[in-house]
Amino acid sequence: MGILTPRRALETAIEMGLDLVEISPSANPPVCKIMDYGRFKYEQTKKKQEAKKKQTTIQIKEIKVRPKTSDHDLQTKIGHIKKFLGKKDKVKVTVLFRGREITLHQQAREVLQKITAETADMAVVEQEARFEGRTMVMLMTPK
């Protein structure tokens, strides 16, 4: 519409049954737009909802085992790991050492290797097993 006086622009918007919205107040002269502001806000919220719907959130689930965890208990834990990986969550496998168990680090590595072998079809090891104080940690991500 070109450059209009504020009064003329407002009258034009009222005649059309729309709103006069200031787009860029710092420009010289200020830039305004005649539009249905309610509909504009509605479309913006719809766009935000659509973008949020397409987002995926990845959680890190943690499974704790011990170096002397029995086979049956380990199979139960592996079942939980598979369930978490099926939901596209990362899994942090933690081996806890208590007291003199700290000397059993080779046995702990075997437990982690067994878990890796069992879940090889579903997961990739993102972070190899490493010591953090009295724990050994390994991070797995779904394929």
Structure, explained:
This protein has 143 residues and is an alpha+beta fold. The chain has 2 domains: 47 residues, Translation initiation factor 3 (IF-3), N-terminal domain (Ubiquitin-like (UB roll)), CATH 3.10.20; 83 residues, Translation initiation factor 3 (IF-3), C-terminal domain (Translation Initiation Factor IF3). The chain has 4 helices and 6 strands. The strands form 2 sheets. It has a 4-stranded mixed beta sheet with strand order 3-4-6-5, covered by helices on one side. The protein has a two-stranded antiparallel ribbon with strand order 1-2. It starts with 5 loop residues before the first helix and ends with a strand. The relative contact order is 0.12.
SSE topology:
Elements: H1 6-16, E1 19-24, E2 31-35, H2 37-54, E3 60-65, H3 71-86, E4 90-96, H4 105-118, E5 123-132, E6 135-142
Parallel strand pairs: 3-4
Antiparallel strand pairs: 1-2, 4-6, 5-6
